[in-house]
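Let's practice the habit of predicting before peeking. Look at the sequence and jot down your guess about where helices and strands might fall. Then scroll down.
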Amino acid sequence: MKVLSVASEIYPLIKTGGLADVAGALPLALAAYGIQTRTLIPGYPAVMKAVGEKAEKVITLYDLFGEQATVLAVRHDGLDLLVLDAPALFNRFGNPYNAPHGEGYSDNWRRFGALSKAAAEIAAGAIPGWEPDLVHAHDWQAAMTPVYMRFGPTPEKPSILTIHNIAFQGNFDPGIFPWLGLPDHALAVDGVEYYGRVSFLKGGLQTAWAVTTVSPTYAREIQTPQYGMGLEGLISARADTVHGIVNGIDTDVWDPASDETIVSRYSVHKPKGRLENRQAVSEHFGLDNDDSPIFSVVSRLTWQKGMDILATVIGDLVAMGGKLAVLGSGEPGLEEAFRNAVRYYPGRVGTIIGYDETLSHTLQAGADAILIPSRFEPCGLTQLYALRYGCVPVVARTGGLADTVIDANPAALAVNAATGVQFSPVEPWSLSHAIRRTINLYDDKKTWLAMQKQGMKSDVSWKASAGLYADLYKQLDLMVSKP
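Done guessing? Here is the structure:
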């Protein structure tokens, strides 16, 4: 089976979050199930620099939202890529979505509408000698792909839209609609219209043959007003086509036994190598070199991630005997709160504002536990990395966090099944209680080591989830009327 995947970012070429990891890892895992995937991505400067010289031009699009663009084909790190080279739209340095020090680019509707339009043309056979059997679009940036397919020449071709985070919807002023190249009747309830605006995500949810989310719990949550972000009615109406498939991770990239970015490699059978990485974390973050537990954070510093709640309980964490190492960036007020914590609690709190891929590996390899107090979390990959590296996750009971971490309750501890600590609700008192539970578990060295090892033995790969995607692809393919 031939699949066209459409994504606005892909690891290792361009990454702002978990979407890139999924877009990069899933095609590799699907190959084991006989699925040939080509991924269409925008030609950002970083992408063009990495693949430009070895790429082959396969088609020219002479009028893509008023611009001439080319589609380039290239193999890179085992991935079969199609790159949309449209300099007027994508030749912008820095974050793919936001202007420097500002909000999202004002023409994001045009940029990602063009990505989807190009994908729909490829779905219809624009590339000589290659036509996909199915199209898989990711998030709002690619969500117009099934819209263009539905209202274009390929309504009979199966399409899937994966929601990585329903909070980001790509909603725009209705004045853009005439420029999208869609028929007038597409601006309707069963099209892209959403409370008088144009919504890319809503349009994709309305027109895709199937919808997937990145965990079973999140698939249920987004059918409720609390988590559906205004789209719960549509999701509920399509409940029979909504599938929750938990993400996996690339276990070759995230493997403490072979990870060259960490100070000392180790495995579930030889875990002592973690000690040197622990020392590296203490040195990087200016923490006291003692045996008290190191809690880490690798996250966007935002309300969604519960970082405001964590900021209010840092004093409790320190008073209980813990230390905290924070790596992340986000809302200015939260960045300042974590910077201030370093001044208030020298040697007990360390903060680095920004993101560093190598340092994130070091934290997973050296911290004792990782705090993920998200108010909602579609799947989350951070806790999967943590499990793989023996860094015990302390997580809110929501979304994919609830699906992937086994709480250290008495029953789970009795059968040696626990891999972390869950808590609910996301309130300061509840998080403080979870931190206290974690420190008590840490003080019992035998129990703690058993939890670390159980987490490291967890199957966090794409193998099982890729199989579920492959099954869904084949189910949809069987629905197509074959000549």
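How did you do? The longest strand covers residues 67-76.
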